[in-house]
Amino acid sequence: MLGWAREFLSQPWPFLTLAVVTLIGVFAHRPVARRLGWRRWPTLGVFVGAAAVAALTLPPAPISSTVPLAPGVSVSGPDGEIVAGCLRSLTDPAVLWSGLVTVDSLGERVGNVAMFVPVAFFLVLAVRRPLIGTGVLLVVPAMVELAQAVSGLGRQCVGYDWVNNATGVLVGAAAAGVVRLVWRPTPPRPQPSGSRPQPSGSRRRD
Q: pLDDT tens for residues 25-39?
């Protein structure tokens, strides 16, 4: 796994993807937050977290990778058989259960869990309805697996990766939920109609 990671990160695509998506987030987070009613700085955190996920999941896998049942295993290209195999993997209870109990390739599993923790954490802090946001984000890893299967870029679709990613979503969402309970910003007090706020330090004259 470490050899695959070193070879994968030696390519320019992961860092290029990270830079491009992060740059988009820097310019887009403010209008997105304003339009959706999200908190501004956590919205930027969502973009940065999404950039990290994209950098690790979307670029092509190393061509020389030959490790079975690991990211980077070669596929023949996007076709119906691959899509069907991906869907079977994402719905097979035995495969999904193995993502929770199997300790093989522990480093890969931990990495897949940690990958989605930041984006889930900042999303729950940003949105008004954290349960809906968490539910939507739980589906995203499955879409990533399906995209990897049909892209023909040497990626593998396996259900236990989705389970690990979903576990990271729940961990990040739970941590952000604790933060929301502890830290609740006080909303600004509404001014009475027809009155103007007095500047600080001013005194009313009789």
A: 999 999 999 999 999
